[in-house]
Amino acid sequence: MEEKNKEQVQPAPLCERVKGDFWAAEISRRQFLRAGLTLVAVGLTAPPWLAQIAHADVQRIAKGQKLPNDHILVVLQLTGGNDGLNTVIPYRDPVYYQSRPTLAIPESQIVPLTDSLGLHPALAPLKEVYDRNAVAILQSVGYPNPNRSHFRSMEIWQTADPDGHSRYGWLGRYLDTLTDSAMNPVMAVSLTKELPVALQARQASVPCFASLGDLQVMTRDPELERTINSLAQMDAPKMDSPTRVIRQSTRTALEAVEQLRERVKNYRSEVSYPNDPFAQGLKQACQLIATSPQTRVIYVSVNGFDTHAGQARTHEQLLSRFAGAVNAFYRDLEQQGKADKVLLMVFSEFGRRVRENGSYGTDHGAAAPMFLIGKRVKGGLHGDVPNLRELDANNDLKMQTDFRSVYATVLDWLGGDPERVLGKTFRPIPVIG
Fold first, then answer.
1. pLDDT tens digit string along 118-155?
2. What domains are there in the chain, each with its CATH number?
3. How far from each other are the two terminal CA atoms of the chain, in whole angstroms?
4. Fewest Cβ atoms closer than 10 Å to its Cβ: which of 63, 73, 221, 283?
5. Phi, psi (5° rounding) for residue 118?
6. Taking all residues of the chain, what is their mean pLDDT, rounded to a whole number?
């Protein structure tokens, strides 16, 4: 019973709070709609949460503990199930061409990585980053007994819990291990319409924005500002504990969002990005990296990868946009001087079947490649060439690497405790220098 009550007073994620009745006692729906968008800002200066973070750092030093590192993780989710076999292609294997009479990429068009593996021709801009040893390709990543439902498989990837139905995401659990995350409302930011399961946490609260442009068109409604400021003037001793937690977390979050809004407003990148969801998502991630030094995790998601029919053209466009966005993103990081501080992790909920279907597409599969991109990665191919002759019981590619080992690698990068977050030990992959 005590644990249940504890969970009830925890602040919900910002993007969830604004959608439900959680704020009803503090801000009317009419006021909220007048504010115009997902969040509101109140123009407070010298936010106390920054002083709290500094105080926490002083306490760590006094106890002989290490300060959190300044590494940043950007997650790019390819929603729908990317066809890994037409992304990183075993072009010297005749089974590939036999299995895909219309979808196989001709060897003459493939961007070679080795004498047996190459990239889809649309990924030529990614090859430029690969040639700088900044792209690590992890072969045949998956999990035991793969699920082919989009919803369930994505849930597994986002919770890192194939055997159960965990309520919290793997990154949310990571944030919960950090005392700073309770004080820093922008420790993680999701550039999505809804908060991904991966960032749902017991204690940490993560804001999400469909676009950083939302921050710039927020109105400063005087009535709304008075309402929010009144939260700080309430007689705290007369409040019950849940109300006090809600009001304090509300004010803290709004202070953080206002500061973020001001910083983002004045930032301009010298790198030209294409105008598509991939590029705009990673461009905004770079804006956050440049302007929000307290942010450590940024989440971006792009859909469209469920290519059951007419795959060839659709997949080519998706990969072209993906490659162009990553190329611009990496150049932007270099211009900022932060390429060695940022790790981009790219994943999809599953790959596609080896054989094409009757609709010139591919159906839901299992294992597929993942990408880790950044100046500190050990670039190149990691793992064996997929064996198209030894498939699993469902005629899908066999898993070589459990995705939780990749997560353990990423959590090490962030300075986290992989075993504590993942619930058991997974050996990190030696792919980051």
1. 999 999 999 999 999 999 999 999 999 999 999 999 99
2. 69-214+260-422 (3.40.720)
3. 46
4. 63
5. -155, 175
6. 83
